[in-house]
Design a protein that fits this description.
By secondary structure, the protein is α/β, with parallel strands linked by helices. Strand 13, helix 14 and strand 14 form a beta-alpha-beta unit. It comes from Pedobacter alpinus.
Length: 637
């Protein structure tokens, strides 16, 4: 019997699985090695974790020490995390995409003692900054042949490969086995388990202190809210474990339930990996779902003729069938028969590309456009949306499996309070809990605040910044604007994203951008209009669609000009801007735009590792182009 209610710390989760659910020899982790998928047992995982713990104790790592990672998702991440968690050390994961300066800042701020490094490229970065980080005593490459890179380096910290570390740890294990068990028993639910640095759309990254209780309670209540997750699921992991969403929604859930975790090779190979692994559950982000949506629509309609008519008919039947079921009614004989035909001719073929076994996908990190959620619902692929921040462990709300309200992020999880506070008066408009849920309830919008077990301990070494977001009544102020709609939480945008035009009209960019993102021609859109008379945008077209439409070579995207000035391309995009503008209020509509040749990137500093635009950075960086657009543009009618 898997009695997770008694579990209070992260290191208890996996050991509970091998005591109550699975045999130690059963598969836990799956990775691609050359052309084959390799299975790794719970036993191997825990043995490697014990060896790492023994090595840490041998070199003097103590409870509360920060242990850094800069590595993509892989079994080594799990071994290392399990090894440090059970002796009370703190997981300090760093996004592999960060710059050397940002990595150095985190290592210094956290005072990290060791760092696990995933690739030769990342190791070269670490070697450049290692001597600036006096607390760093070990650099641990997770790959072989690292000596080719480190041989001539004059580094103060010791360097040892992970495979050698595990060997040394196994040799030391007899000496430390009892101590590891003792240390594990001394880990308390209020101790810090993870230090996760916010990606920071503005300002300096802050280390979010998340406790064992934050993580474990978050997992428990999410499993309560989504009770269909069983202990034989296979999760496909591709979102970074350095981010709290994947760590909780995939890694910690699997550690709790004993599910398998298969690690995708890369984002580029994700579609191929889905077909090979055939996952039953996946965590994802809205942009991935938008791309699947766009590709499916294009594939179903591009050929025209009978094929396109069948595809369009099938989607209409799927929509009608879904709406009948969501209304709590039983579909009649005719619509059920039509739905079976649509499933055979269209839906099953799309599902096959996901592996054919998906129970559902969990979408987080940003709001999913309503039309995209409905599209997957029409296909019979369930998308559960969740909401939260790094500071909330992360889940505050998540869609119930049996109750879907598209355009919302679900019901408040058990054990917390979520309040909607008036942005101007600071009075609470409404406060909801899991138990007060009413599927007909609607309220006005305001800032979303939360109080309860999911809220972080605070920001590392930053008491003043902590006090700015957690008030004296223990409410954490998220900075997000939203409301309750049909009992579910609905997100509008970030307060700091809000644009106020020259006439005092408030404009939240995200809903406006999502409206235009319905166009398959548009890859991304960045709204501009703060203190301006009208709204404009920086638009990045879909490269694939643009190339096909205008027969462009790859060289077109390698040209030095940042922006495209071809009138044919501009007019082509303008057609869809005009098409979707009527769905918005007049003051929200785009009057003019400039076309960026290539997407904003993390490397150029325009977006965060979680793909959120750094609005102030972008506006400042491209100010010359923006001003020129306003100076030369003629307002559209």
């Amino acid at each position: 019997m898997n009695n997770i209610s008694e579990l209070t710390t992260v290191p208890q989760l996996l050991r509970n699985v091998v005591q109550t659910i699975h045999s130690p020899e059963d598969t836990f982790l799956i990775r691609k090695v050359k052309e084959n998928w390799e299975e790794i047992s719970f036993k191997t995982t825990l043995e490697n974790a014990d060896a790492i713990s023994a090595y840490f104790l041998e070199i003097g790592i103590n409870k509360g020490d920060r242990i850094a990672f800069i590595i993509d998702n892989c079994p080594e991440y799990v071994y290392y995390d399990q090894g440090l968690q059970q002796i009370g050390a703190i997981n300090t994961s760093i996004y592999p995409t960060l710059s050397e300066a940002e990595i150095e800042y985190i290592l210094l701020d956290a005072g990290a003692k060791t760092i696990l490094v995933g690739t030769p490229f990342l190791l070269k970065k670490i070697l450049k900054i290692a001597n600036h980080c006096p607390d760093l005593i070990r650099i641990i490459p997770a790959f072989e042949d690292f000596n080719k890179i480190t041989s001539n380096s004059k580094i103060n910290a010791g360097i040892i490969g992970l495979s050698d570390l595990i060997k040394e740890g196994n040799n030391a294990l007899p000496k430390y086995a009892d101590e590891i068990n003792k240390r594990r028993s001394l880990v308390h639910s209020s101790d810090i388990s993870g230090l996760i640095y916010t990606s920071g759309t503005t300002g300096t990254p802050k280390g979010v202190m998340l406790t064992h209780a934050n993580f474990v309670e978050n997992v428990k209540v999410c499993l309560q809210q989504i009770p269909v997750i069983g202990n034989h699921e296979t999760f496909l992991s591709f979102l970074p474990l350095s981010h709290v969403f994947e760590r909780t929604a995939t890694y910690h859930v699997c550690c709790t339930m004993g599910c398998k975790i298969a690690f995708a090779q890369s984002l580029e190979l994700l579609a191929k990996n889905m077909g090979e692994v055939k996952p039953t559950v996946m965590s994802c982000v809205p942009r991935l779902l938008e791309k699947i949506h766009d590709k499916a629509i294009k594939g179903g309609t591009a050929a025209g003729g009978t094929k396109a008519k069948i595809f369009t008919w099938a989607l209409a039947i799927g929509k009608e069938y879904r709406e009948i079921k969501e209304a709590g009614k039983k579909p009649g004989f005719i619509i059920s028969a039509q739905h079976s035909i649509a499933e055979k001719l269209v839906f099953s073929k799309i599902k096959e590309k996901t592996g054919g076994r998906l129970k559902f996908m969990i979408s987080g990190g940003a709001a999913l456009p309503k039309n995209v959620g409905e599209f997957f619902g029409d296909l019979g692929i369930k998308i559960l949306e969740g909401f939260g921040l790094t500071e909330t462990s992360p889940v505050m709300s998540v869609t119930e499996y049996h109750r879907q309200v598209y355009g919302t992020v679900g019901r408040v999880i058990p054990g917390i309070e979520v309040g909607i506070q008036d942005v101007e008066t600071k009075k609470f408009i409404n406060i909801q809990t899991h138990d007060t849920f009413n599927e007909d309830f609607v309220c006005e919008e305001g800032e979303i605040c939360v109080r309860g077990h999911c809220v972080m301990k605070g920001y590392w070494n930053k008491p003043e910044e902590t006090a700015e977001v957690i008030d004296t009544d223990d409410w954490f102020h998220t900075g997000d604007v939203g409301r309750f709609y049909k009992g579910n939480l609905q997100i509008t945008d970030r307060i700091k994203n809000m644009l106020v035009n020259a006439f005092g009209k408030n404009i939240y960019p995200t809903p406006v951008e999502n409206t235009y993102l319905k166009s398959p021609k548009i890859e991304s859109i960045f709204l501009i209009g703060d203190k301006r008379e009208y709204v404009t945008a920086i638009i990045t077209p879909s490269r694939e669609t643009l190339q096909e439409t205008f027969s462009l070579e790859d060289a077109f995207f390698e040209m030095p000009d940042l922006f495209i000035e071809d009138e044919n391309i501009i007019n082509w995009l303008a057609d869809d801007i005009k098409k979707f503008s009527p769905e918005l209020a007049k003051f929200e509509r785009i009057k003019h735009f400039i076309v960026k040749r290539n997407p904003f990137t993390i490397e150029e500093g325009d977006i965060t590792p979680t793909m959120k635009p750094k609005r102030k950075v972008i506006e400042k960086k491209y100010l010359t182009y923006i001003d020129e657009m306003y100076n030369t543009a003629v307002e559209a009618d």
